[in-house]
Amino acid sequence: MPSPMLPRTPMPIHRRPPEPRDHLDPAPAATSEAIEGPRNPEEGVPLSGTAPRAPVRTCIGCRRAREQRALLRVARTPDGVRFDPDARLPGRGAYLCPDPDCIAAARRRGAGALRRALKGIAEGEATVALDQLENHVVYHQVPAGTVRSENA
């Protein structure tokens, strides 16, 4: 049987009386330092409490955490798995160091790490993506001791 509804009694409201505003100091004048923060005199740029951090990703070959821009991306797109040299393709991505040893390590593991990172791709697709990545790394790798010239 439902309980009978009792009439609601209003709760007492306890408010503090407002404080007089005449005892407050006037607001300080806005200066460029107050607005932008202190400036480094050598660089002329505002300093902040912390510097912005670059995104960090883990290489699926060597498992080292590095800045995202230092790694190469493989993406699972609606068209399939592809090497993404500009890191702009839509879809889920996995990252590898631009080092043939890391690609070889990912390949040695049967492309399992790449398949896990991209969630549900076939081993053949993973192998093709690693081939594309390896071709890019080998083609763009500069041999040790080679000096790049502006005129070449």
Quickly list its features.
152 residues, two-stranded antiparallel sheet, 5 strands
Q: What is the number of beta strands?
A: 5
Task: Give me the strand/helix succession.
Answer: HEEEEEHHH
Give the helix tally.
Answer: 4
Q: What portion of the residues fall into strands of 2 or more residues? A: 5-15%
Describe the structure.
The model has no long low-confidence stretch (mean pLDDT 77). Helix content is 26%, strand content 14%. α2 packs antiparallel against α4. The chain has helices at 32-36, 100-108, 112-118, 123-140; strands spanning 56-58, 65-67, 72-77, 80-84, 92-96. The strands form two sheets. Strands 4-3-5 form a three-stranded antiparallel beta sheet, covered by helices on one side. The chain has a two-stranded antiparallel sheet with strand order 1-2. The protein starts with 31 loop residues before the first helix and ends in a 12-residue tail after the last helix. The relative contact order is 0.11. By secondary structure, it is α+β, with helices and mostly antiparallel strands. The longest helix is centred in the C-terminal third of the chain and has 18 residues, at 123-140. The protein is elongated, with a radius of gyration of 30 Å. It has four helices and five strands, in the order αβββββααα.
